[in-house]
Write the structure tokens for this entry.
Amino acid sequence: MICLIGAATVAAAQDQPAPENPEPVETAPADETEERRADDASLTEDPEEQRRAIEEQRAADSMLAPEDEREFDFEWYGSARVHGINTFKLDSGDRTLEVSDGNSRIGFRGDWRFLPKWELFGRAEFGIDLVERFTTRGDLQGDGGLTDRLLFAGLDSDNLSVIFGKNWSAYYRVAGTTDRFAIFGGSASGTYNAGTSGQATGTGRADDVLQARVYIDNRKWLGIFKPFNLNLQYQLAQPIPQVQNEKYTDSFGTSAWLEMQSELGIGIGYNRARIRDPERPEIRAAGIDGDAEALAISTRAFGDRWYVSLLYSVLKNMEITDQGRYYNARGFELYAQWEFRDNWWLIGGTNILEPDSDDPDVGQFRTRYHVIGGRYTFDSFYRMLYFEYRIDDSRFFDGTPGKDELTIGVRWDFGND
């Protein structure tokens, strides 16, 4: 997908009158913040957001011009992610140690520019297990092996992209700003809801969705802002997670993102999966009392060597307890990173999801944990060593506390140069 922001930047530059006798000049590299922006995008799960950030960097570097673009491009890529996990309780001394796969993947992407401002593009991405055990931020139904992560095709122009298939959701454009940890995170936004990857409700890697991504260049009127991003999504009927023989009628989602030239951004996302008859016995037995709804507001800011993002969410009939009962909740996520020395990073954050106090079905259940860790990057976040320590203050329905976890792992990507 061509980066629409970068295309708008090039177009604006072409509107300026050229001097009568231009002097040859050397192309100045993009500032360090733009390079860091493209690097940081590798931490988000959405590969199209990564690609847009990379193209924006190239545009700022004066490397991207319409006449230089290839008419057809096809590439493969992969990501090997393996880590060791030490799970333990400090009070009892109970502990386990295992080596797991951390969502390794392989994929193919291609695009064809058949007209100067029109492009067809697509992507197929599959999860692979490099070791027998695997770790995932959802999908309790997964059992390892080769799994489909993404499979979509789309049409792109200067200000509009239309996509159909299995893709990261419109909601994730906002919810993904705090989803930057290697293993943990994303527990309070509703992205990976009800033990899934968000495929059925449309909040995560959504199945069978039709999406539109619109970019509105408002810099002529508001020069301090980057192009405004609006995302729309419609999803066909999908099974209700953990409820047998029941489906949502359909779902829709939307998100909006506004970012300043100073790299401060704010966004809002909403997703709703509709239920035709919430009074059906199977649905009521699961604790569902209406449509599945998720609302998220997030903000982020970053500079040459730091990044911080906050998210607040309101979830209805989205998440389940360890007893399999749906509940309503409010969530908070924080993610921050700081490069205190070249290639050395400190990271930290919090995930809190508190059920509504008037829900009798949740017992003492809650999700609450804090993460501290570090990274060493070889040339970017695409290739790094990391460790993350989760301090778990969660509770199961009966009050049983969660377990702390220490992970040490490696991520090594291919085809992202």
User: Anything to note?
Assistant: Confidence is low (pLDDT under 50) at residues 1-30, 64-68. The CA atoms of residues 97 and 354 lie 29 Å apart.
